[in-house]
Structure formats: structure tokens, C-alpha cells
Design goal:
This protein is an alpha/beta fold and 373 residues long. The protein has helices at 20-31, 60-72, 87-96, 101-104, 135-139, 160-167, 183-186, 205-209, 234-238, 250-265, 308-321, 329-332, 341-346, 351-359, and strands at residues 2-8, 42-46, 76-81, 108-110, 119-125, 129-134, 142-148, 150-152, 156-158, 194-195, 215-218, 221-224, 244-245, 273-279, 301-305, 367-371. 31% of the residues lie in helices and 20% in strands.
Amino acid sequence: MAQVYFATARVGKWKYDDSMPGKLERLLKKADLGTYFEKKEWVAVKTHFGSDGAHRIVRPTFLRKIADGLKAVGARPFVTDTVRILGLDYLEVANYNGINHLSVGVPVILADGIFGHDNLMVRAGEILGEIAVAAAIYDVPAMVVCSHVKGHIQAGYAGAIKNLAMGAVSSTHRHCGWKCGRGAMHATGEGKLVWDAEKCTFCFQCQEICPLECINFADGEMRYDNEKCWRCGRCARVCPSDGLELPGDDTLFMRSLAEAAAAVLTTFQPKKVLYVNFLTEIQPECDCMPAAEVPIMQDLGILVTDDIVAVEQASIDMLLKAKPLPQSLAQDMGVKDGDDILMKLHNKHYHIQIEEAVRLGIGSREYELIMLE
């Protein structure tokens, strides 16, 4: 049974040790980083850099504490994510979201290079076949996965599994394109965009949000570059009239998330990956979007463990006990106390990704919750 260490977001005493950064320091000491990471060992601190307008990510303060904790045991950490928009632009996004070498105290890199093509194919299973794992994550011997827990329009729930599945896998592969990257999870079959001219209001939001400038409207019709497209799905998500659709299967998507996460973990030896879930600023959507909604529930705290399934199950168990916040999307949709907030918001059976992860043998839903004193 996995031991999951938990620190509440509530402040018990007005002193540094009871602040969130102070509690994270104490959690990392409880977890005993020295038992996982060796002196001079490179350690990837995997996080999400956010987006232009999406600022509710794991705060640089927390990344700094994790980097400092790793350096204290002699390890050599770096903070990383994979290309989600054009690489140099994404590093600028990280910078103005506060993530840079000065704020976190260690190098900040793109795990799959500035073009997103530095990756290696890894066997993934019956759904994905093979998947393009970012080279720096493939090669590094150890990792700390820092996940911002939140909702997700397709997965319902996004935590450590999605962070690894989407964030440690490249958008595309040099030769087989999106079909070997995270686009293979977003879409089924050919995954070709479907445009409904009758529903389209020509607001051009899809064109504006496309990270690769694939979409244009010429002669009153939507056209996009099918070969260049990453299948990220942002265009369909922002369409206010349901005039654009990226065909997909939610069940297959969630199963493929677990499959991709499992594939990433095959590149590590046992007990070389630690998971830190931040149940803070819990918004309804992914940090990839061009804006951040107000939180739908109150900050709950931080969880640390070495079992990816246990950290997800513990996170979900806490979310299920949370109350919807007023003046949020949860209130807009009539979510009541006692409701499963994420299920009410997205109507996705998000537990499928957890069940698939258990089936694949990468963790256990059984855990012992150890509260930080």
C-alpha cells in the first residue's frame, strides 16, 4: 500500500512552517528524497508551463522548493515541459508565467527540443502502438512529476496521469507526425477536423487560437493544413457555435492517457519517479487554454507519493468532498454541495483513466494518507 503524504492548504499558525511553501519543504523531507535520487543524478522536474493567458499553473515558488530539495540531497534537477506551441514561444510563455532559471534556481528546458522533434519511439500498447516520448525524459534517470490538479473537457479530471501522457509525449514525430504524438490520444482514426458551415458564425476564434496557424478562412470557407495540424483540439474547444469538431472517443482517450503514461514510465527504473499533486487553483479546464477560469472549488493542499495511481485516487477522493465555489462555473451550472463537481461540469467518466492505469499495473488505488503535522 502506497504512503501518500498530505499537507492542507489551510494555515494553522501564522509562521513560515505552516505556509504552503514551508509545508512543501516538510513534505519533501517526509518523503525522503535521498532514498529516490542519488548524488549528481539528473532529475527532471516535469511541470506545465501554462499558456498565454492561462496562469493557474504550479507556481514557480513550489518548483523552486522542489529543485532546492533535490539539490540538498546532491541531485542535479532541471525544470521541463514539452513543446505545446512553437518552442521558442513556449519558453517565453514560461518566462512571463514566472518559470525561468532565476525563479526556480535550475535550468528550464524543452524536453523535446525547440522544434518538438527530439523524441524516441516507445512501445505503448494496444491503443497507441508506439508513442513519441520526449528525448530528455526518455534519457533522464529520475523525475519528479509536478501536476496541477484540475478539470478537463475531454478527460474530466487532469492530474499526474495526464501530465505524463500529454506532457512527456511530443506533439508530433519527425516522420509519422501527430499519429505518433499526443494527437493520437486526442483523435481517433484520421482525426480530421469537421467544419459545419451552417453553424459557423465566422468569429475566427479557431484561427486565432491555432498554435501552428493551420486555419484560414478564404472565400467564406474554413480551410486547414491537415499535414501540419497537431490535433490539439483547441480550435474545436473554443468554437462558440459547435461549428467545428475533432472526432474522438472519450473512453479510448482516457484509456490511451493511461497507456501513454505507462509507456513513459517504462523508461525509468522502479522508485525513480516521485509525484507531487497540487490541489490548488482548481479550475475547470486545462492549462493549455488561452485563459484561466476562476477556481471551481477551494484550494485543498499538496499530495506527495511514489505511486501514480495512489496520488490520483487520493486527489479524487479529496475533490469529491469539496464544495463548489460561488461565482464560478460550478455555480453557473447549478452544482450543489455533495455533487461530483467535475462530473457535473464535463459529464466524463474520468475514473476510466485510473482503472486503466491499475489494469496496466503502474500503481494501486489503495493508499495510506499521512497527514503533515
